[in-house]
Amino acid sequence: MSEGVLRLGLVGSPNSGKTTLFNALTGLRAKVGNYPGVTVERREGEARIEGRRVVMVDLPGTYSLTPVSRDEEVVTRLLSGQLAGVPPPHALVAVADACSIERSLLLVAQVLGLGLPCCLVLTMIDELTARGGALDIARLERALGIPVVGVIGHRGVGIDQLRRVLSRAETWGRPPILPPADPEERAGWAQSVLSHVLHTRPGRSRVTDAIDRVILHPVAGTLIFAAVMLTFFQLIFAWAQPAMEGLDHAVAFTRGWLHGVMPAGVVVDFLVDGVLAGVGAVIVFLPQIVLLFSLLYLLDDLGYMARAAFVIDRVMGAIGLEGRSFVSLLSSYACAVPGIMATRTIPSPRDRLVTILVSPLMTCSARLPVYALLIGAFVPSRRIFGPLGLQGLALLGLYLLGSLSALAVAAVLKKSLFRGQGLPFYMELPPYRVPTLRLLMTQVWASARAFLRRAGTIILGVSLVLWGLLHFPHAQAPPASTPREAARFALEQSIAGRIGHAIEPAIAPLGFDWKIGVGLVASLAAREVIVSTLGQIYAASDQDDTASLRQAIRRDVHPGTQDLVFTPATVASLLVFFVFALQCTSTLAVMRRETNSLRWPAFAFGYLLALGYGASYVTHQVVTALWS
Amino acid sequence: MPSPRPALIATLDTLAPGEAGIVEGLEGNGPVDQRLRDLGLVPGTKVMALRRAPLGDPTEYELRGYRLCLRRTEGARVRVRRELAAAPGTESAA
After folding, report:
1. Burial group, residue A538, by CB count within 10 angstroms (0-12, 13-18, 19+)
2. Taking Cα atoms as reference points, which of A418, A594, A588, A591 lies closest to residue A39?
3. At B72, is the pLDDT very low, low, confident or very high (cuts 50, 70, 90)?
4. What residues contact A33, with CB distance under 8 A and at least 6 apart?
5. Cβ–Cβ gap A187/B34 under 8 Å
6. Contact at 8 Å (CB) between A176 and A7?
7. How much is the pTM?
8. Within 13 A of B54's CA, how many CA atoms are on the CB side?
9. Taking CB atoms and an 8 Å cutoff, what residues of chain A touch B51?
10. Could you tell me if A308 and A325 are in contact, meaning their C-beta atoms sit under 8 angstroms apart?
11. Using CB atoms, which residue from A68, A184, A314 is nearest to B53?
12. Torsions phi, psi of A169, nearest 5?
């Protein structure tokens, strides 16, 4: 090894404190991607240690280096330098929770067996002592023949010493004898090492025992689970509302202000209707995303998410998935993007892929503006039972349709494309731990930043293209027409308008006319875009004023026959279409990144479009028959 | 001597919450068994069943100083020797 860049691989099991350590050493400068050909996450971060450039390679959390799937093979191949295009690390840093060293040593033994220079970091040494456990680090160093550093990651204790050790990777000792390769002999080896280093197993965490007695109680635990789910939905739909409305007003105000200060023309139209309308429609979801991630990360860092997965696993097992799939599907109720990212905790690649593929069926918040418009316009606001109204019932029905379809599709996929036994189900229940505010804020900020970056790139780009399609070529309306008529005429002659007309034969069986067609084309970027597009099409005085858009779509008639455009059958059919169809570029982009292929996003888009088309067609037929 | 007690040699999934056993061995050598061994379920390891999930599956076990959840299907692959002296309750925190 030269004095150049030092590449260090971080190896450890989930819950070992590896991520906290990675953050402590590299700060927030992590690069995230995928290893070639598989869905395994590739995370690297740079640190400057004692004046030296060090690249930390965070390897996926694992209990073993013996691969049982193609995805796990990547780690083994990376470590042995067989992964094309990825330089192998010069040395390895094994991370182990001091409290569960009896299990962690089995992994450490495998790491030692790789033959690379290696050091061991023992995390949570404060918890070990607090629970009455003991371990002689100096003796462990001698027994293993490698440097061992004890740290308390979240408080930064031991990090300086670790940095000094890391900067001298060339001088690390090697184990005198490699541990045995056979798992059973390895366990014997671990036992003898532990007795040599005067290991005392820590007592049970009394706090964890006490909390679990309630959280996992058959009755109380189920009630708490329901309460957490309720809080979750309340958070997404009610508590985020004030902030979302505030942002919405801010965007609307900026648009009005720009119209006021800039001369009328293409430039201001572009800024107001292209940039601000497109990006603004997405930015308003930021408060919801921040709140959602705060809750998800808090529950996960505390240790509740593993318990929730434990409680619900039986239900998910019936359709061939597992408890952790539920946790990520839950996130998809806010947005499929974090939901799909959350599938990284699922060890089985098959279960993970199926969960990713059905995530878009969970009713995300972007569908709400669409549902709100259609239900608000066409479902009477009559109360039917207590506070429950007809409109609420319709909304609940759409949620149920989406969620049940997700479970049904998952069951079908697991019995067809993804048949066969994969990995066993196993999950650790870590002790409850209170995360530091700093860790929580770091995680939330990283997610919010990723969301904003998407809004600033993909969504901005698509909004601009759409704006172009909706405005060019700019046809001059007949001289005597009102401004409304002129806007409508221009739209009909635009590229988007022509696309709408062109696809009309295909969507007519669903009860949609060309105007809805334009909305559907526009909503390929993001579902909620259909609302602003319909607003533009109906040339309502203010396109964001949904009240007037509501009246406009209620009154709209076909030019020749004077029949209503939005019949009950058309409304039902359109709602059902939105339950299924995957109109979201962000979801497709994150699917591409997480599955590392174009095949799976294409598959998801295709099957959901087919499902949406079929379900809408049936809905249209049934409602038409029932209504007449 | 006939005994009313449950069989001494059993599989992990038959341990009732509060019962403990020593791992004797695993059913086979497939990837599933390999992963279970990696998780520490090797002969000689003491495993205690702590509790079942509210719907009866999976079960939480304690072994090697940590807590692991396994479903019945995986538990059935692990042969254990029941420890008769096991403490009757699960709440006897050390």
Report:
1. buried
2. A594
3. very high
4. A41, A42, A43, A593
5. no
6. no
7. 0.81
8. 22
9. 212, 216
10. no
11. A314
12. -60, -25
Indicate whether A1 pLDDT > 70: no
Judging contacts by C-beta atoms under 8 Å, the chain B residues touching residue A425 are 58, 69-71, 73-74
* ipTM exceeds 0.90, yes or no: no
A430 vs A557: CA distance, rounded Å: 61
- In this predicted model, what pLDDT tens digit does every residue of A321-350 receive, in sequence order? 988 898 889 888 878 887 888 888 787 888
Six-digit token string for A231:
């809080």
Please name the residues in contact with A6: beta carbons below 8 A apart, sequence gap of 6 or more: A52, A53, A54, A55, A90, A91, A166, A169
Strands (DSSP E) contained in A403-505 are 426-428
Residue with tokens 């719907």: B55
Give chain B positions within 8 Å (CB) of A219.
Answer: 54
Residue matched to tokens 């462990």:
A140
H or E element, residue A513: none
Q: Which of A31, A165, A159 is nearest to A92 (CA)?
A: A165
For the segment A476-485, the average pLDDT, to the nearest whole number, is 72
Chain centroid, CA A285 distance in Å: 14
pLDDT at A288: 75
**More confident: A256 or A40:** A256
Per-residue DSSP letter, A199:
-
- Tell me the backbone φ, ψ of residue B90, rounded to 5 degrees: -95, -10
Q: Which residue has the tokens 């997405």?
A: A282
- The residue among A584, A436, A565 whose CA lies nearest residue A520 is A584
- In A133-175, beta strands by DSSP E: 148-150
DSSP class of residue A265 equals S
Q: Name the token pair of B4.
A: 């009313």
Distance CA B51, CA A214 (A): 12
Burial of A149 (0-12, 13-18, 19+ CB in 10 A): buried
Distance CA A574, CA A274 (A): 25
A541 pLDDT band, cuts 50/70/90, is very low
Q: Which residue's structure tokens are 């009755």?
A: A219
CA distance A60 to chain B (A): 16
